[in-house]
Amino acid sequence: MAWLILGALGIMLVVGPTLWVQQVLHKYARPLDRYADRGTAAELAEHLITSLGLGDVRVERTETGDHYDPDARAVRLARKHFDACSLTAITIAAHEVGHALQHARGERMFRLRQRLARSVIQTQRLSGGLVFLMPVVAGVTRQPALVSLLLVAVVGTALLGTLVHLVTLPVEFDASFGKALPMLERGRYLKANDHVHARRILRAAALTYVAGSLLGLVNFWRWLRLLKR
Q1: CA angle 139, 145, 149 (to 5 degrees)
Q2: Please, which contacts does 43-47 make with residues 24 or more away whose CB atoms are closer than 8 Å?
Q3: Read out DSSP for 77-131?
């Protein structure tokens, strides 16, 4: 029974953050026209970029989720947010512009995160190759110690992504509360009763990557179980 309770708690610790982030973003995605009188999320992002003097930053629609791409210098908003006028959409747009501002200012933690993120991408590609190599190594060498070593390397690279997101979490909170919220408040973009809700959305936006990487560990574990059969 104790193991079942610990297992359930472990699952909630991993899956819980993702469920909370999704619930918050979904809750304030309605009504769709709440900010229709002030423009879409994309229009707000463009306005903020202009007002901050970030003229070389573009606003683009994407299918891969809201993010700021420092290499392309582009604020990318998901299709469901790009043309939307909901509280979630405009708040997310401000958060991503916050990252563009961090980049423009050359902030040390932002630059550190970019270097770490590039390293993680490379190691996770290696991890993907090792996952599919494990059954081959096991069948050819029949050396359990070597397979175990590969398993440790794979698990380590999988955990590295989550660790990087945790270490650089201050960058996300700064984009939300050090950049986006002041921009929204100074420009009086938020309606009277929306400040407290915007704070919840900005907190969820800051935790998105951590929550996603934790959920990724669950999928990763499923792959390992399939390969061990």
Answers
A1: 95
A2: 44/90, 44/93, 44/94, 44/189, 45/75, 45/77, 45/93, 45/94, 45/96, 45/97
A3: EEHHHHT--SHHHHHHHHHHHHHHHHHHTT-HHHHHHHHHHHHHHHHHHHHHHHH
Are 97 and 174 a contacting pair, CB within 8 Å? no
What's the residue count for the chain?
229
Instruction: State how far the Cα of 160 lies from the Cα of 89, in Å rounded to an integer.
Output: 30
- Count Cα neighbours of 108 within 13 Å in the Cβ-side half-sphere: 0
Tokens standing for 121? 């991408």
Average pLDDT across the chain, whole number: 82
- Cβ pair 16, 211 in contact under 8 A: no
Q: Decide: 62 and 11 in contact? Cβ < 8 Å.
A: no
pLDDT tens, position by position, 200-211: 999 999 988 777
Contact criterion met (CB below 8 Å) for 102 and 171:
yes
**pLDDT for the residue 133:** 62
